[in-house]
Amino acid sequence: MSAAADGPSQHLISRRRLLGGAAGFAAVGGLGVLGRGSPTLASSGVAARSAGSTSAATSLPVVKSPAAPAFHSRPDLLPPQMQVTDLQSDAADGYVLITPSAVPTARGVTLATQIAEGLGQPGLMVLSGAGQLVWFKPSTVLATNLQVQTYRGERVLTYWEGAEGAGMGFGTGHILDSSYRQIAVVRAGNGVRADLHELQLTPQSTALVTGYVKRAADLTSMGGARNASIWDGVVQEIDVATGKVLLDWRSFDHVPLSETHAALTKPPFDYFHPNSIAPYGDDELIVSSRNTWTLYRINRKTGAVIARINGKSSDYKIGPEADFYWQHHVRQHPGGLLTVFDDGAAPEEEPESRGLVLAINDSARTVRLVKAFTHPAHLLAQFEGSMQLLPGGGAFVGWGGEPYYSQFAPNGEIVLDGRFPTNDQSYRAFRSPWVGRPAAPPDVVVAKDALGGRVVYVSWNGDTETASWQVLSGNAASSLRPLATVAKAGFETAVTVRPTGRLLAVAALDATGRRLGVSGVVSA
Fold first, then answer.
1. Range list of H helices, 2-89
2. CATH class label, 144-218+225-428
3. 80, 183, 233, 475: which could join 251 in a potential S-S bond, CB 3.0 to 4.6 Å?
4. Residue 64, pLDDT above cutoff 80
5. Which band of pLDDT confidence, cut at 50, 70 and 90, is reported for residue 238?
6. What letter would DSSP give residue 56?
7. The pLDDT of residue 27
8. pLDDT of 154-163, one tens digit each?
9. What are the extents of the domains in the chain?
10. 120 contacts: CB under 8 Å, gap ≥ 6
11. Which CATH superfamily hosts domain 46-59+441-523?
């Protein structure tokens, strides 16, 4: 995650921008600010909150700021103000999953200041392609790597959460079901705490995680002390259900210091920096080391290094434009393809970051560039980033330390571009289908308008199926009758009504009119 401190580089590679296709496209045009509630009314303020709201809310304090108005129905949620340019909306592409947080240099600023500057709360966020909020879970610590995965045959959300320092994380992985209930926690074993960089589930219901442990090392070969220390990069495969460690791989047992491209720092020296693990075939894993610029094929049971791809000791011949530097997020795909996010920095080795599709021939030991996706603003990520290959040959790229995410058509044209507020970021970004059915009921508050009517504000954090809201009214909870039905309008919908009784509630309806859930009853 963190940038290595090599000092100014004299090696600047002039890259052909393959499949650029987007010349003249402005960096990001703001088609609007992420759904931020409804217009403020000249009213007596929010009067009532549904009974189901407490279970849906987090325990975080409510922080209000003129620069970041709260949702009336969920004032505890203050997500970042995103700008999204959606040029070719396609609902089949699914939702955008990000983990907004302040960039490392901006951390330590008070939460109130972050919110006033538009950064909002850090946490976990699911958006529509157009940038409307679908689900937000604030976090009091760093959260990363939110994605849709499969666990025991079911689609789940997974993420990491914990403490961070010097580009390393110390925390736990979490698995949520479609109702956003936690069904498993992933912990590293053997005295290691799971790192922020990876939480990859496998078809065997195991989890691949990275970690760090301090280890004594002789650094005289690099100009350091004899009795020094390093951060030993850890790769573990964990049985999710039992927590059993199936593989515990330590970089220093397999990779010498001579392979690093990182400049020597004050110990512990982070010479390896693992940031990605994924299955490679049936019997191997592929491990990305940021600081050696290398992908390691390792035996899944013994941990033996089978081959190195790229870096100082590559066993593969790297074709033109197929090399990479300080890379992240490596994944294998059918047809001998591998995707890599090529940071190109830091320090700078390339003029811009790239999302790469590589053809890997393991028999001939060759690597060939198939596609390179680059941003028209020539973004150069100093750290972090992700490269997701989409069905049909397009790509979804999270630019890590650069505050953008982008979706590309197969020809390299940008069809969606999202921008975070200044000093905000997401470690990775994904686009995936997802069906969310919250366990808690919808949240409702009621306010008086200037003409004596009532404005009902309703939201359902995490719901993906509601098409319309039906306001119910009456004098008894058991006899509420439909009063008005309106189309869902973003995260929070406002409905102006004149109640027929002293009580109100709101029902969520899907596209067929089927009732999905009902809020608690509130006073009209």
1. 53-56
2. mainly beta
3. 233
4. no
5. very high
6. H
7. 30
8. 999 999 999 9
9. 46-59+441-523, 144-218+225-428
10. 68, 78, 79, 80, 81, 100, 114, 421, 424
11. Immunoglobulins (2.60.40.10)
